[in-house]
Specification:
The protein is an alpha+beta fold. The protein has a single domain, classed as PPM-type phosphatase domain (Phosphatase 2c, domain 1, 4-Layer Sandwich), CATH 3.60.40. The chain contains 7 helices and 11 strands. The strands form 2 sheets. Strands 2, 3, 4, 5, 6 and 9 form a 6-stranded antiparallel sheet that branches. It has a 5-stranded antiparallel sheet with strand order 1-11-10-7-8. Strand 7 and strand 8 form a beta hairpin. The longest helix is centred in the first third of the chain and has 16 residues. Manganese (II) ion binds next to helix 5.
Length: 245
Amino acid sequence: MTSVDVSVRSDVGAVRHVNEDSLLAADPVFVVADGMGGHARGDAASRTAVETLAASVPSGTLPTPDEVIAAIDEANAAVRALSGADESGVAVAGTTLTGVVRVRDPESGDEPRWMVVNVGDSRVYQWDGHVLQQLSVDHSAVQEMLDAGLITAEQALVHPERNVITRALGAEDLVDTDVLILPIEGHQTFLICSDGLTKELTDEQISGILTDVRGDHAADALVEAAVEAGGRDNVTVVVVESLAA
Ligand code: MN
């Protein structure tokens, strides 16, 4: 049996007037969505994505990875339907979608696994009590420049295009979702967050908070620290702790 504890928090931040982030934390689905788009559609986009996912993968079920991908495809279509056929560019509603889903692997006798999914620049990290490791790879302009060796990690943090993402739900008819399958074993902690957290706090600051604050208050402490550090964007955090016995 695996027990899963989760702590969540979403905050509009210190500058913006609308929280365009949404989250879903109903076992087996733990995701963050960071919406964008003109005509105040960002909040509708992220909400539509998580609501579609919640309906397709009901809590208490254990889906296959294929079923999760199908649910994300469905969420993509639902977000796309928010935009008119004649709209393009910033008028189009879009959202990131990033997180972990507890799945069963039909290729190994329905063994349970963690499935990391990502579209956009929200992130999934694994925290082992010492090291904070980013599991997702950002779909962003600066990540592409980093990969090409054109800029350094330090330059990426302040680059003028640091908010430009290269993949989103709602942007195209078909969405390409990054997938990583992990075993469920021992004590595992996943941090899922929107960029409002990682653009305000360093990995060292995040690690320090995860070390000092346990359990239900981890998400609160992280979000409050990001808002205090400037809170220039909406900040959303889901911390998932699983214990396999
Ligand atoms: Mn954001």
